[in-house]
Specification:
The chain has helices at about 45-60, 80-95, 105-125, 125-145, and strands spanning about 65, 70-75, 95-100, 100-105. The protein is mostly helical. Helix 2 packs parallel to helix 4 (about 125-145). The protein is globular.
């Protein structure tokens, strides 16, 4: 019969980093998580814009109005796996249609998710890695249902993001091309 030694409970580890440590980090494609399942989408310039938007969205969701409504406050939020699964499901599988533009391509939805997970990785790399695995499954499922084809992936040993894939923003933070 196997006997197990009783041990003391391990102390709870606090997060070393918090979202507010990174809220002012400017997006760059170098921050994106490397994922092989996104290669079919890199030929789509909108995918690169979506990656940036997803990265920014991660932090934007943590701004809230003060109690008196006079200012916006940044409040750190530490996501759980359940919240990550819910966010990915809603943004990759459920939000396929936009009232203004109609169909939202899988390339855009994957870009938003990759950018969001890349921002999450700055705070919790392990949780972001789990999110990438979930995203890979969702992409596989959505590709089997998606009727809009994505441009082919670029060929060659390296690929640079086209400069036109970046959106210039004005001093108010809104894209200039809107």
């Amino acid at each position: 019969m196997l006997e197990f030694a009783r041990t003391e409970a391990l102390p709870t580890l606090t997060a070393v980093c918090k979202p507010s440590d990174f809220v002012d980090v400017e997006y760059t494609p170098a921050l994106l998580l490397c994922t092989s399942f996104t290669w079919p989408f890199v030929g789509d310039m909108n995918h690169h814009i979506a990656c940036k938007d997803g990265f920014v969205l991660y932090f934007e969701n943590m701004y809230h109005w003060s109690a008196d409504g006079s200012e916006m406050l940044f409040i750190d939020h530490f996501y759980t796996l359940d919240e990550v699964v819910q966010w990915l499901t809603e943004n990759v599988c459920k939000h396929k249609y936009c009232p203004l533009d109609g169909y939202i391509s899988l390339s855009w939805r994957v870009g938003i998710a990759c950018g969001w997970l890349s921002a999450l990785a700055l705070v919790d790399a392990g949780l972001a890695a789990q999110g990438v695995q979930i995203l890979a499954r969702l992409v596989k499922m959505e590709r089997s249902r998606d009727t809009v084809s994505s441009p082919p992936a670029p060929s060659g040993p390296t690929y640079e993001v086209p400069p036109s894939a970046f959106r210039a923003c004005g001093p108010d933070g809104w894209p200039l091309d809107l």
